[in-house]
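User: Reviewer 2 asked us to show a designed sequence for the structure in our supplementary figure. I'm pasting the structure tokens here. Could you produce the per-position amino acids so we can include them in the response letter?
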């Protein structure tokens, strides 16, 4: 985990101090050094916040190849860089890291080197030979990268707050935030600032100011797996056993261990020295700590149990929202934040988590509801999901169709411009009639962005590098290619192939045989209608008095009482804390 920022344009060198200040703004992302470097021709200045993981003695970036003049700022990890260096004939010194490899690869073969990189990254390359600044992001968007155009210059940064400091950026309420609690696509709540899309390469010509973007990888283009289930399981098990351990750091690290299938598989494959779980006293339905303790004991790891309470939430909310840059929907945000804080207190630099299998192997109940129908899901014993199933019930004689069913299950509020419906329809169309593949693409277009973004941003607030081993390219592509029956056969048992792989690994039955998915869910929504109701109202009303008109509808929605599964109030409170933090920062 690092941070990058910079500026490119004909007069970039004149703004070197501006770039230096941009780097300082996000210095928490790289406590091992914040530095900036101007390109040899003066038309770009790059800054980098460095967190040293691979080699604690390595030199902080940015990195310059003096022969070609190529300048690189890099955030992330390339897990296969040594293999690719050997394949491409790129020599690496004893103390040289994946960033040095990317620099040499770009100097040698240019942007085409992206095809061979397997990892999580956001990078900026200024190449004076082409007179262009290049920005690129990893295939699934694990590492954030924002950009804006201003006065013939292009500015970029790992955090949107860094770019709001570069110049005015009025707040904009994106309507999809009311619909699913998060901006989608490349939009942000700031006018003129965009998020670079995953698997995208942007090029900016510093002489002409012209800009071009193209996608260098597409999951939808992967061809279906043609083998039997036995063949698929054998292939999946091999890829799992090979790829996941490659993402283990060469240092002590912590695993987020919820007690569920995904994190437990990682525990058995990675054998972390420390496991961290979160539980809430008095919330038995959310408590998986007994299973987590069993897994930690099996692998000989220390289990650290974090027990947040309502007072903790009131104390950390503002910092949590500052770390996120802007509100985005994710039910486990508070639990993740508290876990990262505890891990940082232990002096660790890397944390591993289990993102991925739910999206690619049909692990969510909403997938079962679309594939099997609400009656079949409820009949399978999933009574706790009646409120979700009710979105598809009582439509006798009306064929919702897969697109409409997915949309109803995803929406949490109004979709007046049908943007969410359109995104889901496009995703389903790209899947070519394969409903399971369509569900995965719909997830990536809607709910995925806040999951990966909150993981990176909250970890970065504590100078932690977050790794998600299930997002290995080969594993993701294979999972996507599998037919639906390889992923789910029973309405209450998604991730079939991962469950069977877990059995072979020796995981206990209470892990691979469990039907209900909890993860790091929290009771915060119920707190806001109970113990913290008065406090929440006060926070929202205070923000309303100062909020721009564009943000008022979102805040006003939080003053209405919500149900057990309603996160509208939580979203409004997060927005209130975010606006408060922006006001305080501006005044300072």
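Assistant: Here is a per-position design you can include in the supplement:
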């Amino acid at each position: 985990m690092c941070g990058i920022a910079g500026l490119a344009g004909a007069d970039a060198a004149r703004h070197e101090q501006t770039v230096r200040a941009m780097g300082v703004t996000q210095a928490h992302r790289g406590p091992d050094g914040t530095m900036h470097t101007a390109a040899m021709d003066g038309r770009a200045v790059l800054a980098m916040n460095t967190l040293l993981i691979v080699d604690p003695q390595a030199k902080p970036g940015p990195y310059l190849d003096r022969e070609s003049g190529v300048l690189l700022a890099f955030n992330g990890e390339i897990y296969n860089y040594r293999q690719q260096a050997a394949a491409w004939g790129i020599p690496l010194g004893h103390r040289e890291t994946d960033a040095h490899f990317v620099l040499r690869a770009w100097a040698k073969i240019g942007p085409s080197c992206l095809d061979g990189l397997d990892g999580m990254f956001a990078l900026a390359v200024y190449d004076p030979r082409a007179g262009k600044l290049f920005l690129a992001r990893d295939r699934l968007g694990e590492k954030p990268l924002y950009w804006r155009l201003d006065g013939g210059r292009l500015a970029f940064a790992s955090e949107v707050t860094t770019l709001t400091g570069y110049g005015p950026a009025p707040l904009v309420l994106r309507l999809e935030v009311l619909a699913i609690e998060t901006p989608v696509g490349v939009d942000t709540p700031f006018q003129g600032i965009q998020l670079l899309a995953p698997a995208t390469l942007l090029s900016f010509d510093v002489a002409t100011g012209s800009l071009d973007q193209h996608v260098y990888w597409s999951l939808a283009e992967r061809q279906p797996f043609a083998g039997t289930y036995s063949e698929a399981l054998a292939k999946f098990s091999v890829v799992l056993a090979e790829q996941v351990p490659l993402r283990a750091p060469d240092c002590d690290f912590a695993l987020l261990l919820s007690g569920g299938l995904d994190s437990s598989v990682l525990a058995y494959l990675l054998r972390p020295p420390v496991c961290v779980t979160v539980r809430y006293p008095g919330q038995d339905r959310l408590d998986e700590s007994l299973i987590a303790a069993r897994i930690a004991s099996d692998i000989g790891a220390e289990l650290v149990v974090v027990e947040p309470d309502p007072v903790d939430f009131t104390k950390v909310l503002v910092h949590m929202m500052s770390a996120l840059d802007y509100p985005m929907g994710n039910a486990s945000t508070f639990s993740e934040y508290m876990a990262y804080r505890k891990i940082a207190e232990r002096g660790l630099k890397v944390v591993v988590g289990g993102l991925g299998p739910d999206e690619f192997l049909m692990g969510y109940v909403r997938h079962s509801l679309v594939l099997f129908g609400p009656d079949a899901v409820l009949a399978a014993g999933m009574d706790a999901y009646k409120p979700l199933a009710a979105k598809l019930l009582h439509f006798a004689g009306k064929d919702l169709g897969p697109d409409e069913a997915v949309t109803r299950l995803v929406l949490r509020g109004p979709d007046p411009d049908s943007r969410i419906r359109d995104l889901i329809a496009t995703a389903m169309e790209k899947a070519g009639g394969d409903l399971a593949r369509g569900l995965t693409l719909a997830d990536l277009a809607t709910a995925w962005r806040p999951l990966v973004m909150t993981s990176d941003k909250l970890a970065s607030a504590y100078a932690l590098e977050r790794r998600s081993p299930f997002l290995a390219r080969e594993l993701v592509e294979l999972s996507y290619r599998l037919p639906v029956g390889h992923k789910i056969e029973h309405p209450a048992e998604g991730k079939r192939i991962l469950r069977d792989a877990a059995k072979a690994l020796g995981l206990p039955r209470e892990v691979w045989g469990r039907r209900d998915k909890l993860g790091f869910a929290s009771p915060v929504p119920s707190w806001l209608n109970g113990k913290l109701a008065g406090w929440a109202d006060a926070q929202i009303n205070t923000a309303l008095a100062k909020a721009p008109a564009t943000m008022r509808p979102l805040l006003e929605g939080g003053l209405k009482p919500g149900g057990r599964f309603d996160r509208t109030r939580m979203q409004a409170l997060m927005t209130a804390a975010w606006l408060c933090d922006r006001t305080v920062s501006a005044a300072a």
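For the response letter, you might also mention the following. The mean pLDDT is 92. Residues 568-587 form the longest helix (20 residues).
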